Every structure is written in structure tokens, then in C-alpha cells.
Amino acid sequence: MNKPLILVVEDDAPIRNLITTTLKTQDYKYIAAATASEALQQATIHAPDVMLLDLGLPDLDGIEVIRRIRSWSAMPIIVISARSEDSDKIEALDSGADDYLTKPFSVEELLARLRVTFRRISMLQNAAGCSVFTNGDLQIDFAAGCATLKGQELHLTPIEYKLLCVMAKNCGKVLTHTYITHEVWGSSWDNDVASLRVFMATLRKKLESEPDSPQYIQTHIGIGYRMLKV
């Protein structure tokens, strides 16, 4: 992909300067905004590839910014916020954020999160119009409704296969329990979350050579799961 354009939305000038300086040293293109209204305007005019979004903006909460962006754009949004409670992360992710980075953060971690996001964008672009998903030794043939690992077919239950497909179609993105259970079961009750943990455990036994050190599916305790790009 061409060099992506990153929209930095942060009202704290020192933090905004830290982020933009970091991007500049890595030769990333960027534009910056200090308010929600400015961010929404910049997003509309420039159609950036990725947004780095602070939630504590002076004119509008960042959660509402996510919801407004999601009404017309699938642009990846990485939240950078001092709000560290699981409930805050879940609300942001359920509203449409792709990732969540808690302040204070290291520039190395920020760059790593960006690399993950860019790999996901590249994977989605390459997969456009393709019915086969490949991630390391894992391959899913959506048209045939089957999955293989190292060339051997995985014998999955219908729920396990659906769960695997949801994770694969959002590879690199943190998915909350609520999102996954809604996609798999069509609802998000507490017993669905309990079932999700059971099915995730059985799926990992079939997918991971070392379930205690997963290669494909990462747990975000109290929040949900992410399929890693191998």
C-alpha cells in the first residue's frame, strides 16, 4: 500500500507533538486536530487511512466521534486515552474502535500498534474478492466452508467454524465479548459469554500447538479476543 495518511486527534499539545514527531521520524504522513469538530472536518476532507484518537476532547467525547465516523467510514481507529478501566475500553471497542492504547504509552508500542493496523489493512485489501483466507499455516476456504492447518483439515463444530471466521474476518482487531457473541449467536447474554469461553477453549485446542502460548488467538482479559497476524 502507499504511505498511509494518519489523523492525530489530541487536545494536549505536548502529547500531540510527541505523536506527530514520532510519525515524522518514521516518514509517516499525518495531519493533526485538537478538537472533535476539527477531527470530523479533517476526516471528511482528507479521508485519512488511520485515526489516532484521544477520548477526552474539549468539545465532544471521543466515543461520540467514533460513532459518527463509523456512520460513514470503516477507517481504523486507534484510541489513545488515559481512561484505563475495562469498561472504557469495551465501550470504545464496541462503538467501533479497532484498538486501545492507554496513556502513558511508549512510542515503540504506538508504532507497533500502527504496524499491526497497517498489516490488517493490507490483508483486507489483498483479500478483497478472494474467498480464501490465509494466515501462517491456517487457511479458511469460506466458499467451501472448511479450514485447514498445515494442510490438514480442521474438524470443527459449526459454532467453532463460525467463531473462527468472525476472528479471521477481523484479523488484527480486538473484538469484544459482546461483538463476538452477537455475531455468533445473535445475542449478547451473560450465558453467551460463558459459552464463548468454552468454545474458544475447544477451538484453541484444535488450532494451537501450545494452547497456553497461543500463536493465532490472543486473549484480552475482561475485554475479548484478537486474531494475530502470523
UniProtKB/TrEMBL annotation:
One of its GO terms (biological process) is positive regulation of DNA-templated transcription. GO terms for molecular function: cis-regulatory region sequence-specific DNA binding; identical protein binding; phosphorelay response regulator activity. One of its GO terms (cellular component) is protein-DNA complex. Keywords: Cytoplasm, DNA-binding, Phosphoprotein, Transcription, Transcription regulation, Two-component regulatory system. The modification 4-aspartylphosphate is found at D54. It holds the Pfam family Response_reg. It is found in: Cytoplasm. Residues 130-229 bind DNA. Residues 130-229 form the OmpR/PhoB-type domain. Its main location: cytoplasm. InterPro entries: CheY-like_superfamily, OmpR/PhoB-type_DNA-bd, Sig_transdc_resp-reg_receiver, WalR-like, WH-like_DNA-bd_sf. It comes from the Bacteria. Residues 5-118 form the Response regulatory domain. May play the central regulatory role in sporulation. It may be an element of the effector pathway responsible for the activation of sporulation genes in response to nutritional stress. Spo0A may act in concert with spo0H (a sigma factor) to control the expression of some genes that are critical to the sporulation process. PANTHER family: KDP OPERON TRANSCRIPTIONAL REGULATORY PROTEIN KDPE, REGULATOR OF RPOS. This is Stage 0 sporulation protein A homolog. It comes from Gemmiger formicilis.
